Amino acid sequence: MELTWHGHSTWYVDVDGTTLLVDPFFDNPKTDLDPADVESPDYLLLTHAHADHIAHAGEFPDATVVGTPELTAFVSDEFGHEETIGMNLGGTVELGDAYVTMHRADHTNGTNTGYEYDVGMPAGYVVSDTKPTQVSDEESTTFYHAGDTGLMTEMREVVGPYLEPDAAALPIGDHFTMGPWQAAIAVDWLDVDYALPMHYDTFPPIEQDPEDFAREVRATGSSAEVVVLEGDETFTLE
């Protein structure tokens, strides 16, 4: 599985040739790319409707939009996407060679458009190359994109033990989401091999040194490796 971070919460995920773009937002200081520079993905996974997560959804009109039914309906109306898959918290859908499970995120939601829309609950996604079951599969490769969230016990009680992510992308910016120390607790609870910080340095309120996150992870006693990517850099999860 190839994981490419384009800054903020924007990830391009390749699962055996099936491509997923999560939360397209390229107006951030970590990327040198414009949306036109990015190969159109098969699917757009949207965690919630804040502008810094859906701003460039319209630049990928051929992608199938995946999100809560409320959010996919809004994006279809706003950006003109014809293909959508509405799913909801706890559900798993098969997208090409990927299995995508939606999980809750503790956050707010809204469209910032001046119009009233019900855009559903904020979410995160667990992306795997095998279908999740209660039988542990050591051969599977699984990536958790937590979305915009605070620390929540579901990471310890559900996501970690049952969805078994190998790597997690977690917000560390503080102010609007978890900061480094709470994100480090999430790493420990999730019991992942790799922790990848995201959602930081985009705006002044969320400026962070990712080394603070790495230090906090070590302080939990977790053996996870903190992987700090440069913008537009790819990490191969095997």
> Can you identify the CATH class?
Alpha Beta
Task: Give me the number of helical elements.
Answer: 5
Radius of gyration: 16 Å
Helix content: 10-25%
Distance between the termini: 6 Å
Number of strands: 14
CATH architecture assignment: 4-Layer Sandwich
Mean pLDDT: 96
Q: How much beta, percentage-wise?
A: 25-35%
- The domain tally reads 1
Q: H/E element string? A: EEEEHEHEEEEEHEHEHEE
CATH superfamily: Ribonuclease Z/Hydroxyacylglutathione hydrolase-like
What class, by secondary structure content?
alpha/beta
Protein name: UPF0173 metal-dependent hydrolase ACFQHK_04795
Family: Belongs to the UPF0173 family.
Keywords: Hydrolase
Pfam families: Lactamase_B_3 (PF13483)
Provide an overview of this structure.
The protein is α/β, with parallel strands linked by helices and 238 residues long. The chain has a single domain, classed as Metallo-beta-lactamase, Chain A. Helix content is 20%, strand content 26%. The protein has 5 helices and 14 strands. The strands form 2 sheets. It has a 7-stranded mixed sheet with strand order 6-5-4-3-2-1-14, with helices on one face. A 7-stranded mixed sheet has the order 7-8-9-10-11-12-13. The longest helix has 11 residues. The termini are close together. The relative contact order is 0.16. The model has no long low-confidence stretch (mean pLDDT 96). Keywords: Hydrolase. GO terms for molecular function: hydrolase activity. Belongs to the UPF0173 family.
